[in-house]
């Protein structure tokens, strides 16, 4: 950054400055300029996390609330050994840092630079991060106890780091994300360095301003603190946040703690007022404001559009900063302006499987720790902004969690030396004395039967068994979309059964590796259809762009209770427009059908077509297990080795983050194929290591359509239940030559635990004039033989008449259940105009297209 540009920038922020360079060390010019404070009102310190008026209520809280007393004691235990005014002890504390001395020992030592070639080690980075967290804790303890030994601890660390930064060259003309102590990674530096220094300064300022000294490593003596150096450090981190980020991503949120903390550490009120809009509502070309971020939360229930790990951080950090600023200046009312950001936490909850695991999509994870600090801050934010609804929601959840013993307010979050701002002490400083909420709320309240996550193209269906929800519930999702850290998955699916996610997505691997880029992020790692052996991505984030999976129709409608306790379905569509051979059109109908309290099945109907003469389509399904066995008409299907079947994609060029070896199935191992057959098939995946009893998922494939069947071992699925997260993944592939639209892929899935019997006995295709219309499913439930006719058509106006079966249906989806005497037990009209069976007719109420009746 040129001197004139710096001067112009400082002027714009309300600073008057001299033109002299701050300091020269070992031939390196420091990056910031001295600011002369003229006519600036004094800024109250501390004021970022707390103000002086907050101190007595916090002390009262420690005296009266056991949980607060416990937090105080834990905080004290963390840093009491570091609190000393003796120079020998203060020197020893600082020497725990990975100091780097200059040849001229009269100069203060510096610290390593990180995340660059020849930079500091992981152990050194941990030491650097830990010391700053110690400094923050010491500052908080000084505020609470007024013991100058704690102030000395924090001030010494602050002074040492500022001196180290002064000796480092800012990457003035560096590329995006260039930094200071982290020359190539301001994104990381903002969270572990930039965010902490201002907090320490805010707390130890009264000590320093009253003449408190800092330990100077170069002289070995106590010295005066240089406030100008500190202010220039804060200005530099503000500049980095505003000028070195990536706008259309989660980066602005990850950098915002540094931005806001450094703004509030400025000792010029006008400069604070000039800068704070850069967080609240004013964007730069490299930094998105909260107002811009909030556009991704336009509707209640929206979440940040990235895979879950990244999405959750955006919500948590934004809630923290909104709470901080609404405490700092209640007139800002950020919580009132952007209530949908904290509401995202209820949306995360509603994504979960019955075993409390998350769907796997993009570069996410299967499980995440419940972020009680985020819930506490959301509760506080709601109260600050008189949002009664959210105050009740979060208050009830927290109160019930405390009562159930799954949450304890009396313990600080564990220290973690990773890329995250440190604000653990706010547990003690901010949390309300008591939680006002009902303790009668179920800690795991009921989730909606259907939910849509639009950016991910995700539709969730669930049928929850409330007496034994973990083992006897059904849940599935269909998903696919283009977003940051998304995968080129096509129209993906996961299936739940017997307490586990059984039909499973491949998950994520290690970033920048061949297998992650050319398998885990591509179609073959997902339960999807690959058309022409060439389904692919193009454009979007790192060339991972695919069309979003669209919801065509869903019953129950999203968030609604539904018309039937036993049935639900969704039809979704996907445009495989970047296919390397020819574009393809996909449509998937997935139904969840309960046949008893403890039994049910999934019916998956996948249509695909492509405008090319030699089209073919492969249906790919992965399921955890030790083995996969395939039979036809009760006899084992003997397959032959077919090692070269999927290897063509291995020869495609690969350029990291740009070109990929689509569709990724060259990573399949031990490939075996059975030649084309039109016979019925039964594929059973067995898993003996999930518990005391073996769990199986059976896939029934009805006869009538000629298709190849292949079994293989896919790479391990990171989201699988242990020990299957470290084992190859049994995989089933069906291939159909020609279009798969008039005669789609059809598979019925049912899971069972050892000792239980399957309900589904047989699945047969229903056809009319060579067109697939649905299936006939034969069931045995509690000794009773039942038959279900499941009808699936393309539009609500399609007609299916089968006089020989007694069926007349106009619509898209329906289920007829009859007993052995041919009497109707249930009629379910999922989407349609009328449904009749042997004279028994069901029509939906006016203005609707769904109905249900039990007989």
Instruction: Provide the structure class.
Output: alpha+beta
Radius of gyration: 31 Å
Identify the CATH class of the largest domain: Mainly Beta
In CATH terms, what is the fold-level topology of the largest domain?
Answer: Beta-galactosidase, Chain A, domain 5
Side-by-side strand order of the widest sheet: 13-14-15-16-26-23-22-18-19
Q: Indicate how many domains the architecture comprises.
A: 4
Low-confidence stretches: 1-40
- Taking the alpha carbons of the first and last residues, their distance comes to 78 Å
Query: How does the overall form come out from the CA principal axes?
Result: elongated
Q: Helical residue percent?
A: 25-40%
Average pLDDT level: 94
**Percentage of residues in strands:** 25-35%
DSSP helical segment count: 21
Largest sheet: 9 strands, antiparallel
The number of E-state strands comes to 34
Q: Tell me the CATH architecture of the largest domain.
A: Distorted Sandwich
Pfam families: Hepar_II_III_C, Ulvan_lyase_2nd, Ulvan_lyaseC
Main location: other
Organism: Alteromonas aestuariivivens
Subcellular location: Cell envelope
Describe this structure in words.
The protein is of the alpha+beta class and 855 residues long. It has four domains: 1-287, Glycosyltransferase (Alpha/alpha barrel); 289-444, no CATH class; 450-758, Distorted Sandwich (Beta-galactosidase, Chain A, domain 5); 759-855, no CATH class. Helices cover 27% and strands 26% of the residues. It has a nine-stranded antiparallel β-sheet with strand order 13-14-15-16-26-23-22-18-19, with no helix packed on it. Strands 27, 28, 29, 30, 31, 32, 33 and 34 form an eight-stranded antiparallel β-sheet that branches. A six-stranded antiparallel β-sheet has the order 12-17-25-24-21-20, with no helix packed on it. Helix 10 (251-264) packs parallel to helix 14 (308-328). The model is unreliable at 1-40 (pLDDT under 50). Pfam families: Hepar_II_III_C, Ulvan_lyase_2nd, Ulvan_lyaseC. This is Heparinase. It is found in: Cell envelope. Residues 300-439 form the Endo-acting ulvan lyase 2nd domain.
């Amino acid at each position: 950054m040129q001197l004139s540009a710096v001067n112009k920038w400082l002027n714009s922020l309300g600073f008057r400055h001299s033109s002299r360079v701050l300091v020269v060390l070992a031939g390196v010019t420091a990056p910031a300029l001295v600011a002369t404070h003229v006519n600036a009102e004094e800024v109250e310190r501390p004021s970022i996390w707390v103000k002086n008026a907050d101190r007595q209520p916090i002390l009262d809280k420690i005296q009266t609330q056991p949980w607060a007393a416990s937090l105080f004691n834990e905080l004290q235990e963390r840093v009491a050994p570091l609190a000393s005014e003796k120079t020998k002890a203060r020197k020893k504390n600082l020497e725990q840092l990975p100091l780097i001395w200059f040849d001229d020992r009269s100069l203060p030592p510096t610290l390593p630079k990180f995340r660059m070639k020849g930079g500091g080690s992981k152990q050194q980075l941990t030491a650097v991060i830990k010391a700053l967290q110690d400094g923050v804790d010491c500052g908080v303890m000084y505020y609470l106890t007024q013991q100058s030994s704690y102030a000395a601890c924090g001030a010494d660390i602050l002074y040492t780091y500022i001196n180290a930064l002064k000796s480092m060259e800012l990457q003035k003309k560096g590329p995006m994300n260039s930094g200071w102590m982290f020359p190539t990674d301001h994104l990381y530096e903002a969270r572990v360095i930039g965010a902490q220094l201002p907090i320490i300064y805010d707390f130890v300022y009264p000590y320093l301003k009253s003449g408190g000294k800092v330990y100077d490593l170069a002289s070995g003596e106590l010295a005066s603190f240089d406030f100008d150096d500190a202010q220039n450090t804060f200005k530099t981190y503000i500049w980095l946040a505003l000028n070195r980020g990536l706008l259309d991503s989660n980066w602005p949120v990850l950098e915002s703690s540094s931005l806001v903390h450094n703004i509030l550490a400025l000792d010029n009120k006008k400069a604070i007022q000039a800068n704070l809009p850069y967080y609240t509502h004013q964007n730069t070309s490299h930094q998105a404001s909260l107002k811009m971020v909030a556009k991704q939360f336009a509707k209640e229930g929206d979440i940040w559009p990235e895979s879950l790990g990244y999405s959750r951080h955006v919500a948590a950090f934004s809630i923290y900063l909104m709470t901080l600023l609404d405490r700092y200046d209640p007139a800002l009312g950020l919580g009132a302006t952007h209530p949908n950001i904290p509401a995202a936490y209820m949306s995360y909850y509603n994504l979960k499987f019955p075993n409390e695991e998350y769907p796997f999509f993009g570069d996410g994870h299967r499980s995440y720790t419940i972020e009680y600090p985020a819930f506490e801050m959301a509760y506080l934010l709601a109260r600050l902004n008189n949002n009664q609804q959210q105050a009740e929601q979060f208050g009830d959840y927290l109160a019930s969690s405390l009562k159930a013993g799954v949450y304890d307010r009396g313990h600080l979050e564990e220290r973690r030396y990773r890329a995250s701002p440190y604000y653990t002490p706010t547990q003690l400083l901010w949390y309300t004395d008591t939680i006002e909420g009902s303790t009668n709320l179920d800690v795991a309240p009921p989730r909606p039967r259907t939910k849509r996550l639009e950016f991910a193209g995700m539709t969730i269906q669930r049928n929850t068994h409330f007496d034994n929800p973990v083992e006897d519930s059904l849940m599935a999702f269909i998903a696919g979309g283009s977003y940051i850290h998304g995968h080129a998955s096509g129209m993906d699916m996961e299936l739940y059964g017997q307490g586990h996610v059984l039909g499973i997505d491949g998950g994520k691997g290690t970033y920048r590796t061949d297998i992650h880029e050319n398998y885990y992020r591509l179609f073959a790692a997902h339960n999807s259809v690959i058309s022409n052996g060439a389904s692919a991505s193009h454009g979007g984030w790192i060339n991972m762009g695919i069309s979003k999976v669209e919801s065509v129709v869903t019953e129950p409608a999203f968030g609604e209770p539904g018309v039937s306790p036993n049935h639900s379905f969704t039809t979704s569509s996907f445009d495989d427009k970047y296919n390397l051979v020819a574009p393809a059109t996909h449509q998937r109908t997935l139904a969840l059908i309960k046949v008893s309290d403890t039994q049910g099945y999934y019916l998956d109907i996948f249509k695909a077509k492509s405008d090319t003469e030699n089209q073919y389509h492969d249906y790919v399904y992965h399921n955890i297990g030790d083995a996969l066995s395939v039979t036809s008409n009760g006899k084992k299907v003997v397959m032959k080795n077919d090692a070269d079947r999927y290897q063509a994609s291995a020869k495609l060029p690969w350029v990291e983050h740009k070109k990929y070896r689509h569709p990724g199935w060259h990573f399949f191992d031990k490939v075996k194929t059975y030649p084309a057959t039109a016979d019925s098939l039964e594929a059973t995946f067995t898993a003996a290591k999930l518990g005391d009893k073996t769990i199986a998922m059976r896939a029934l494939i009805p006869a009538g359509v000629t298709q190849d069947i292949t079994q293989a071992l896919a790479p391990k699925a990171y989201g699988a239940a242990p020990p299957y997260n470290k084992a190859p993944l049994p995989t089933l592939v069906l291939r159909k030559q020609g279009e798969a639209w008039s005669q789609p892929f059809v598979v019925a899935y049912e899971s069972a635990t050892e000792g239980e019997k399957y309900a589904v006995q047989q699945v047969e295709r229903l056809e009319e004039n060579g067109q697939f219309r649905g299936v006939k499913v034969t069931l045995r439930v509690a000794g009773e033989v039942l038959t279900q006719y499941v009808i699936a058509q393309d539009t609500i106006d399609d007609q299916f008449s089968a006089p020989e079966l007694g069926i007349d249906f106009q619509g898209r989806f329906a289920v007829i259940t009859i007993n052995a005497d041919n009497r109707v037990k249930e009629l379910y009209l999922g989407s349609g105009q009328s449904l009749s069976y042997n004279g028994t007719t069901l029509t939906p109420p006016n203005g609707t297209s769904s109905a249900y009746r039990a007989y």
